[in-house]
Write a structure and sequence with these properties.
This protein is α+β, with helices and mostly antiparallel strands. It folds into two domains: 2-48, no CATH class; 62-214, Glucose Permease (Domain IIA) (Distorted Sandwich), CATH 2.70.70. Helix content is 20%, strand content 35%. It is elongated and about 60 Å long. The model has no long low-confidence stretch (mean pLDDT 88).
Length: 215
């Protein structure tokens, strides 16, 4: 119960928590109202950077969600040209993370990271279609246990200004393992080929636990 009310936070959050805490004390010295407003913001910062433990299915027949948030796209597209996959057809699922969602990202499958590619870009609203091509983003090409390419893309949003990658090339991953996070509102895309989607637009996903697709 305690861990649900006061979850551990990601290391990226400590600096922001200290800044907002100090700012709250300064504001409180000026005005009780401003101090209470600062306290609310500090509580929000704490929960934004929460990093709860998750339990994955650990079954290679499934893909789990890489992010908390709302399913906004389930479609068939060309593969990412940035990875040289534009001549292959992939299914893509997009998850939009608003500023109240947990922003720690996880791998949809077990496997090995074959490539990580960072692309600078704009900071459009992450729910827009153009965000997948125009926004700042980070690609993870993961070889699953069957040697298939599973692509996860972290996409910065309107407020997000930092994509955090906590993984490295050739790293072996277990399904649901943390791979990074994005600060302050963003999106995650998953590209895959040989699975059938299990989710629909408007559904809420939980990183590491919600089943996105099945072989």
């Amino acid at each position: 119960m305690f861990s649900k009310i006061f979850p551990k936070i990601h290391t990226e959050g400590y600096r922001f928590l200290i800044i907002s805490g100090v700012a709250t004390l300064v504001l409180y010295a000026l005005s009780t109202f401003l101090g209470l407003l600062g306290l609310v913001i500090t509580i929000w910062v704490y929960y934004f950077f929460r990093d709860p433990d998750r339990t994955s299915i650990n079954d290679d027949k499934y893909l789990v969600s890489p992010a908390d948030g709302e399913i906004i796209k389930v479609e068939e597209v060309d593969g990412p040209k940035e990875l040289g996959l534009e001549d292959r057809k992939f299914k893509k699922i997009s998850i939009f993370m608003n500023v109240f969602d947990c922003h720690v990202n996880r791998t949809p499958c077990s496997g090995k990271i074959d490539e990580i590619l960072y692309k600078p870009g704009k900071f459009l609203n992450a729910s827009l279609d153009k965000a997948s091509e125009d926004n700042e983003r980070n690609y993870y090409k993961i070889k699953n246990v069957d040697g298939e390419d599973i692509i996860v893309v972290q996409i910065a949003g309107l407020i997000a200004r930092r994509i955090v990658c906590e993984s490295s090339k050739d790293q072996e991953l277990k399904q649901g393992e943390r791979i990074g996070m994005i600060r302050f509102g963003s999106r995650a895309d998953v590209y895959y080929e040989n699975y059938e989607p299990l989710v629909k637009i408007g559904q809420t996903a939980v990183a590491g636990e919600t089943l996105l697709a099945k072989k």
